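Hey, resending since the last one bounced:
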Amino acid sequence: MKKTLFVCATLMAAVAFVSCSSSKESAYRKAYEKAKAQEQSQPQYPTAQQAPVVTPLEQPAQQPSYQTPTENVSVRSENVSVISGKGLKAYSVVVGSFGVRSNAEGLQNTLNRAGYDAQVAYNAERNMYRVIVSTFDNKESAVQSRNSIRSTYPDAWLLYRQ
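The structure tokens again:
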């Protein structure tokens, strides 16, 4: 009799558990489908927006000029090949790195719409797609470009093509 009672209790617990998990599963499925529908109804890439008007703060009469010494700027050296773009020179300014090619191309399209001549390069060793906003023959020009682009892309870094 104890065995029968134990088997019945176990069977009822299993039925209760299955019914709870299926209701949770259906709730998750409904939420997922709703989110997917909203995602599909939105445009794939955000539209270009006008930059807000920023009024500069008053500057002191004499502002010290500061230039970043180029010998102390770190440069990552990688063997990359151009996927889309005109071609790379020795030094490039990278604003994005992606493991998925379509994500890199999305940023490239955004940059191209903003007026940059962006390119996508592939590093096969690391399986990463690099989005390059500008490319130069010398390090000094690349450092200046990187410093100016950092106002928009603060994680911009320099790449030396091997």
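The chain has a mean pLDDT of 81.

Sorry for the duplicate.
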